[in-house]
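User: Can you recover a sequence for this backbone? Please restate the input before giving your answer.

Assistant: Of course. Working from this structure:
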């Protein structure tokens, strides 16, 4: 037994010394990490087709080690290969398609083998990357034109590149569809109208070449296609009312696939929609995709709820609780003329009774599934205070602050429903009837009359002074869209 104790004693003493050593150390080490290079590299570079793309970042690193570089532009194509370079500055003749490309610069410290990665984006563009596209009608002919930033009008640009292809007659909308996840970009334009062999035509925003008819945007197209109202979102798809049915572009595939954004059969249900529809977003300033639809049945005269899915929307109908007795949203009793959505489900609807009285309905539709319960707050119903100003061709729009702008012949009015304040904007249009009006943001109002597009300042305390105007447009403006100007 004594022999065993003597045998274990050195082991015990050694363990105690090891434990004591670990306790004193406490892992307090000093690391000398090599310094990371500092680069003057932007996150976004624009490259014009046929021009040189030069990226020459200034690289600074302590100790002046030997550095190597690897540049890469990732090209998502079966034909093109990635663009790779190993110079300190990146210089190429840009010949890729006009789209956005993910890119990366790798800086290699050859003295210690460390690699540092810097990601950025290259946005390929053409001569049409910046400017304003304007849809007009002249003597019954639909015309698409482009206005350069210097105000030069390239009239009837569609016919320059599309011989023998007809745009829709009786044009109603120009829809600028953004690139996926880039809300301020434009990838395609859709031109919609009420007549002609094609009621919808799509063109590539980079060259204005027609690349799809609306009938080919359906997996199974209906015999007759009447687009009422279409609105895009930042996921590169449209949704809206066609033939009284609600459609939503399919997102159940890769966003560069040819079938991405196409329409299926529409929302299933017993309804017949007006073109007056509102899209409500979970984040109002980020229209990623609708979180709810507020629609109006043009036969039953009732407000309906639809739920988006990324494919066919789901018809919820009138399955919502009603708060307030100003009016019954499930039985309005008259057709709708205009639905204005301010923000967060707050709306103003203008409905015409059988005796021709124009009513203003104010409500909040909380149709987004979330923290708040689903419901409809009927806030107010009253005759419109100035019905004599509303004409058959009156145009309407609304700001997020619930300031309404509407046209009356050759005049634009600013209307605050909160205090019944009506103000005529200061700019006059030489007696020309207003054919288009559109809020570009809360501070800028675009107004179109024969041959001219005006930009008016409607910021706080300003009542429609001219910011700029484009003359020389062929015909009367119907709609417009900007690209690369903000």
């Amino acid at each position: 037994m004594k022999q065993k104790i003597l045998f274990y004693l050195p082991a015990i003493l050694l363990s105690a010394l090891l434990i004591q050593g670990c306790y004193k150390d406490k892992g307090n080490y000093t690391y000398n990490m090599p310094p990371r290079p500092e680069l003057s590299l932007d996150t976004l570079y624009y490259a014009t087709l046929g021009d040189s793309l030069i990226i020459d970042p200034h690289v600074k690193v302590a100790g002046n080690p030997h550095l190597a570089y690897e540049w890469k532009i990732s090209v998502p194509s079966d034909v093109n290969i990635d663009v790779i370079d190993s110079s300190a500055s990146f210089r190429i003749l840009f010949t890729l398609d006009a789209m956005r490309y993910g890119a990366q610069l790798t800086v290699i410290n050859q003295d210690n083998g460390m690699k540092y990665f810097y990601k950025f984006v290259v946005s390929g563009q053409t001569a049409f990357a910046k400017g304003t596209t304007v849809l007009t009608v002249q003597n019954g002919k639909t015309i698409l034109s482009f206005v350069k930033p210097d105000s030069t009008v390239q009239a009837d640009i569609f016919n320059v590149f599309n011989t023998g292809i007809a745009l829709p007659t009786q044009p109603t909308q120009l829809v600028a569809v953004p690139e996926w996840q880039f809300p301020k970009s434009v990838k395609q334009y859709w031109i919609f109208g009420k007549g002609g062999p094609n009621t919808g035509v799509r063109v590539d925003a980079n060259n204005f070449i027609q690349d799809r008819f609306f009938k080919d945007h359906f997996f199974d197209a209906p015999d007759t296609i009447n687009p009422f109202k279409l609105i895009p979102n930042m996921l590169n798809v449209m949704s809206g009312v066609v033939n009284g049915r609600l459609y939503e572009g399919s997102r159940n595939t890769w966003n560069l696939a040819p079938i991405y954004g196409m329409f299926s059969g529409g929302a299933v249900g017993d309804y017949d929609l007006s073109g007056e529809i509102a899209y409500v977003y979970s984040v109002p300033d980020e229209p990623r995709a609708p979180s709810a639809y507020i629609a109006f049945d043009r036969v039953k005269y009732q407000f309906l709820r639809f739920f988006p899915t990324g494919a066919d929307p789901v018809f919820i109908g009138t399955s919502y609780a009603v708060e307030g007795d100003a009016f019954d949203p499930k039985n309005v009793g008259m057709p709708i003329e205009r639905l204005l959505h301010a923000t967060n489900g707050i709306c103003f609807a203008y409905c015409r009774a059988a005796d021709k009285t124009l009513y203003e309905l104010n409500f909040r539709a909380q149709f987004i599934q979330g923290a708040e319960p689903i419901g409809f707050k009927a806030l107010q119903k009253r005759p419109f205070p100035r019905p004599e100003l509303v004409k058959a061709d009156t145009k309407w729009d609304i700001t997020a602050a619930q300031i309404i702008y509407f046209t009356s012949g050759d005049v634009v009015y600013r209307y605050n429903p909160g205090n019944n304040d009506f103000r005529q904007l200061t700019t006059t249009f030489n007696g020309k009837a207003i054919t288009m009006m559109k809020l570009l943001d809360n501070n800028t109002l675009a107004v179109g009359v024969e041959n001219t597009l005006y930009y008016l300042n409607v910021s706080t305390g300003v009542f429609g002074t001219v910011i700029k105007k484009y003359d020389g447009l062929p015909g009367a403006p119907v709609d417009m869209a900007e690209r690369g100007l903000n």
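That completes the design. Residues 1-7 have pLDDT under 50 and may be disordered.
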